[in-house]
Amino acid sequence: MSSFSGQEDFMHFEAEAPLKDKLKIFKSSQFEPDGYVISKCQNMNEKEIKYLRAYLVDLRKASAEEMRKSVYANYGAFIRTSREISNLEGQLLSMRNLLSTQGAIVHGLAEGVRADLHKNADDSSEEDLLDSEIKELSNMEKWLVEFLENLEVLLAERRVDEALVAFEEGEQVKKEATERGTLSPAALLSLQNAITEQRQKLADQLAETTSQPSTRGQELRSAIQALKKLGDGPRAHTLLLSSHHQKLHRNTKGFQSWSSSSCGGAYAATLCQLVFPTVGRAAHDSLAVFGEEPAFTSELVTWAVREMEDFAGLLKRRVMASAAASGSLRVAAECVQICLGHCSVMESRGLALSPVFLRLFRPYIEQALTTNLKRIEQSSAALAADDNWSLAYAPVGVRPLRASSSPAFLSTGAMSQPRLSSSAHKFNSMVQEFFEDVGPLESLQLEGAALEGLIQVFGFYVNLLINALPASAETEEDPDGTISRIVKMAETEAQQIALLANASLLAEELLPRAAMKLLAGKTDDLNGRTSGRQNRLPEQREWKKRLQRLVDRLRDSFCRQHALEIIFSEDGDIRLNSQMYTTLDDFPDEPEWFPSPIYQELFLKLTRMSSFATDMFVGRERFATILLMRLTETVILWLSDDQTFWEEIEQGEKPLGPLGLRQFYLDMEFVILFSSQGRYLSRHLHQVIKNIIERAIEATASTGIDPYSLLPEEEWFADVAHIAIKMLSGKANFGMERDVMSPSAKSISSVVSHGST
User: Fold this and answer.
1) CB atoms within 10 A of CB 314
2) Counting beta carbons within 10 angstroms of the beta carbon of residue 110, is it exposed (0 to 12), middle (13 to 18) or buried (19 or more)?
3) What's the rounded Cα separation, in Å, for the pair 534 and 541?
């Protein structure tokens, strides 16, 4: 048990350590793989071994990525170093030739000294030796003449392979002649100069061959291979890349001359077919001739990146710039997807070119995204100016919604075909198309910008809905001086509730459904696990909360407008004032007990809105309930916070008397009862009403009157409120108890008339 706990601690430490510390143990000169594995796996069970293996695999991937970043960061240094090495090789070759010449001179001097020392030797033996040496020198000089002539012929006939063999033979003879002294210093120097001169001549021929448009494939590789064998590898590799560059330039130039009518994805696809195969062949040729030498690999990658930048510049001028400016997100996305698809093929050849395109194209995609969102705003404003704010199913010309199979955002009560006003239908359709265009661009990591953009355009549309409310409608002056509304006004309560239906359905169902097209590809990792989805759930919830807060702004504006319509008259006078209650005690007779007209109007308004909401908020009854709750709270909270009202009640010249207190108590119980029956009585609202009742009772008690001795039982208030609800709802039979006095039919008629729209 202790070993398992220790292993867990080790794994936790390794997971938290930086990459440099993780790799430190593997860089040690004393690292032994077998010993490392035995030390880690000796006391492990199968599950822990699998965990360790997964950890090592992840570490290998991170190490490879770190090495790639390091290589990319030092491309310039690699190229400079390789060029300096090439120059150094040339200088060393010159030094070797110089040393060979000096060695020949020294050898000649030594031979002269040796001849002087043996001047007195036997004449006959000396003559025999001299004849033998003269004969040998004659043969070597004869070979030298033939060798030089043969080399000239091979180069003239461009027999490269035979010339390379001849160079090797000449180098071998030169070496033997230097060791044995079979060539005179002058002949040896002549041989060396001839080999050097002919090598350079062959190198120039090969360089000229690589620059010819007709040289390609195996012929190009053979020429580069021969140039490498001549000892000039850096030049050979540069010429290889230059040859492919020239071919690429010719192909793209010829394509542009006849592709003036091509545009968009077709242009990008055809251009990619010209560029990427050429870059791929260059990588294949480089690997075939030079292998994986770091200097040449770095030069290849640098060259490929430069070619991709040129290609991207051509594509930007022809497609991306205009697409970004016009907001053609689908065209821009298609071009990027085509390029990234070809980049994935190049990955198998060791060229990671995707970061180049992501870096170069991202600003244009972002510009197209911003322009597209701006167009959605402009279209929404134009449609809202002519919307009649009546709900209907999707009209002809607006794409229908497809039911989503993901429950991440959708409630079970939502219909696949929603009822919206005309501008909301079009807004939803444009948002769907927007996310379909952005969805394929997962590699650009644009989901954050796209979701933030959706928040902005939805906020813009909510502002349009707020401006459609009569109390907040904005106007603009036309060139002829007339005043016109920016948004068509929602005049009736049904139209105003339709505004809320638009916003709530978009925020709760339709916009999250559209966002799923973007987020669906990001929620699962490659192994089908749900870690990605779990990581994104908090972000998705926060995004939905931001949408809901925008809807809350519209709902608060709606409630504020209707609360003010109840509290204030058309002339701006306050109807909900203290005189409603303080003047009741001025009359000798008790009034006919019934809720005050302002609360009757509130009840009738809430009843009408509840009827509208039942039809418009199908499957979203909770939103309708909260709407009615907030409207009721807005009126009561205004009463609770009205300092003028309470100053006159508590400190005014005419205090709140017994009859005024009973009417106030009845009004509050009436609000509690109809809110409770409508199921929109919140705990907060109930507590606020109880508090202001207590405050009114204390105000009456401060005058020296015992309020509790004057107030009837609570059942009386409940009965009167219940009868009032029935009468105002048209469900009463007017058969009331004797203790309850009903208002006249005339007063009921006036209340209903006053509360209707």
Assistant:
1) 17
2) exposed
3) 11
pLDDT digits (tens, 9 = 90+) for 369-385: 888 889 999 999 999 99
Tens-digit pLDDT profile for residues 467-500: 999 877 554 444 544 444 578 899 999 999 999 9
Alpha-carbon torsion 493, 494, 499, 505, what sign?
Answer: positive
Instruction: Write the pLDDT tens digit of every residue in 277-288.
Output: 888 888 888 888
- Cα angle 328, 330, 332 (rounded to 5 degrees) comes to 70
Rounded average pLDDT over 15-42: 70
| Helices 683-701/621-641 angle, 10° precision | 20
Alpha-carbon span 309 to 317, nearest angstrom: 12
Residues 6+ apart with CB under 8 A from 501: 391, 419, 420, 616, 617
Residue carrying structure tokens 């690589």: 210
Paired tokens of 711: 């107030």
Residue whose token pair is 């005050």: 596
Alpha helices in 28-122 (DSSP H): 33-41, 46-73, 75-117
In 3-state terms, what secondary structure has residue 175?
helix
What is the distance between the alpha carbons of residues 650 and 654, in angstroms, rounded to a whole number?
Answer: 9
**pTM > 0.85: yes or no:** no
Report residue 569 as tokens.
């008259």
Closest CA to 174 of 104, 92, 93, 229: 104
Query: Which among 400, 332, 344, 397 has a CA at the least distance from the CA of 369?
Result: 332
Under a CB-based contact definition with an 8 Å cutoff, are residues 415 and 499 in contact?
Answer: no
Apex 418 CA angle, 414 and 420, nearest 5: 135
What confidence score (pLDDT) does residue 457 get? 93
Amino acid identity at 689: I
- 112 burial class (0-12, 13-18, 19+ CB within 10 angstroms)? exposed
Residue type at 743? P
Task: Please state the φ and ψ torsions of residue 472, each to the nearest 5 degrees.
Answer: -130, 15
State the chain's maximal CA–CA distance in angstroms.
172
Which tokens go with 573? 């006078």
Angstrom distance (rounded) from CA 707 to CA 255: 97
Q: What's the CA gap between 315 and 305, in Å, rounded?
A: 15
Report the amino acid identity of residue 694: E
Cα atoms in the 13 Å half-sphere on the side-chain side of 385: 12
The letter for the amino acid at 236 is: A
Identify the H or E element spanning 476: strand 475-477
d(CA 313, CA 321): 10
**Using DSSP, how many helices (H) and how many strands (E) does the chain show?**
29, 2
If one counts every other C-beta atom within 10 angstroms of the C-beta of residue 19, the result is: 12
Q: Which of 227, 439, 235 is nearest to 330 (CA)?
A: 439
In 3D space, the residue among 276, 210, 221, 217 whose CA is nearest the CA of residue 243 turns out to be 210
Give the residue from 415, 455, 413 showing the smallest Cα distance to 431: 455
Q: Which two tokens stand for residue 597?
A: 């007209």
Q: Do residues 241 and 300 touch, judged by C-beta distance below 8 A?
A: yes
Which of 185-199, 345-359, 679-693 has the weakest average pLDDT? 185-199
Closest CA to 364 of 444, 440, 467, 291: 444
Of 682, 640, 629, 647, nearest to 664 (Cα)?
640
Residue 240 near residue 285 (C-beta atoms within 8 A)? yes
Tell me, rounded to whole angstroms, the distance of Cα 345 from its chain centroid. Answer: 23
Question: Which residue type occupies 488?
Answer: K
Q: How many residues does the chain have?
A: 757
More confident residue, 30 or 509: 509
Residue 440 DSSP symbol:
T
Q: Whole-angstrom Cα distance, residue 160 to residue 207?
A: 13
3-state secondary structure (DSSP) of residue 121: coil
Nearest to residue 246, comparing CAs of 297, 222, 223, 212?
212
> CB within 8 A of 216, min separation 6: which ones?
247
| 451, 518 Cβ separation under 8 angstroms | yes
